[in-house]
Design a protein that fits this description.
By secondary structure, the chain is mostly beta strands. It is built from four helices and 20 strands.
Length: 282
């Protein structure tokens, strides 16, 4: 499994918070071409092994990916929250997964550790990893969206505008404190016919409007330095049974965001698809 390391440009930080600091990295594992047009069910990843691949065994990992269908028995949206295995500590899996309720088409959100005891994901994952230490981070507060772009895209494009050709990678967490969002969850069954356009993908997905408070796990990069990256990917969970893939808020007049972010020192591109496309990356 090929793994490429790339050094990000890291701007200085001035604000203080804790929990996501120390040897920060972003890993993009697999990719959408392993899901679309047709699924490649051989693509399964162990996040304890990924932590070693990115030279950070024991890493604290957050992010967005596809659920481990090989153990769950169905497709799902995955929200990794994992303390990986180190020499001195066993791994701890605090991840969530969201899947479609076969009875009514609604959302079912569950803690992964209540179903399985592995540390896997599948097909694709965008991960932010660190030592999980306290330290300087960037705090972002925003409310009342006035433009067409979502919260993450606004930050990503601001970084791109300011830093130009110097790629910046960011991760962390943000809370949608008020309002509602458009989200999706993939069907439990992979598509048996090829999905060759965004329109076909959108017909396959299940879309929802979900309400705050929502805990979001974003990973985004200002520009692709040539590794076929997904520029932004955000999943979320909640404590009221809703979770999925974040698109944008649907209540711009009342929405409120509070986030804590950190630049990544390195990008690791793991198991990059040899054949690629731009479908299904919204």
């Amino acid at each position: 499994m090929a793994c490429i390391e790339f050094s990000f440009h890291v701007p200085s930080l001035e604000e203080l918070a804790g929990g996501i600091c120390g040897k920060t990295r972003i890993a993009e594992v697999g990719g959408v071409p392993y899901l679309l047009p047709l699924v490649n069910q051989k693509k399964v990843y162990d996040l304890n092994k990924i932590a070693k691949e990115i030279k950070l065994p024991g890493a604290f990992i957050l992010g967005a990916g596809a659920g481990p269908f090989q153990t769950l028995g169905f497709n799902s949206e995955f929200m990794p929250v994992i303390q990986t295995k180190s020499e001195h500590k066993p791994p701890v899996n605090g991840s969530y997964f969201a899947h479609v309720n076969s009875a009514d088409g609604g959302c079912l959100l569950e803690k992964y550790s209540e179903k399985r005891h592995d540390f896997e994901c599948a097909l694709l994952a965008n991960l932010f990893a660190s030592e999980g230490q306290p330290g300087k981070v960037i705090e972002v507060k925003a409310k009342r969206r006035t433009g067409p772009l979502n919260f993450v895209t606004c930050m990503r494009q601001t970084l791109e505008k300011h830093y130009g050709n110097k790629p910046i990678g960011m991760g962390g967490t943000f809370i949608i404190q008020k309002g509602k969002v458009k989200s999706h969850i993939m069907p439990a069954e992979f598509s048996s016919c090829p999905l060759n356009s965004d329109e076909e993908v959108n017909k396959w997905l299940h879309f929802y409007e979900m309400k705050a408070p929502l805990v979001c796990l974003p990973v985004f990069v200002s520009r692709d330095p040539g590794f076929d990256l997904r520029l932004e990917h955000t999943h979320f969970f909640s404590h009221h049974g809703e979770g999925g893939h974040y698109h944008y808020d649907t209540t711009p007049d009342i929405v409120e965001y509070l986030g804590y972010f950190l630049p990544a020192e390195f990008l690791y591109r793991i198991d990059q698809p040899k054949e690629t496309h731009s479908i299904g990356r919204d």
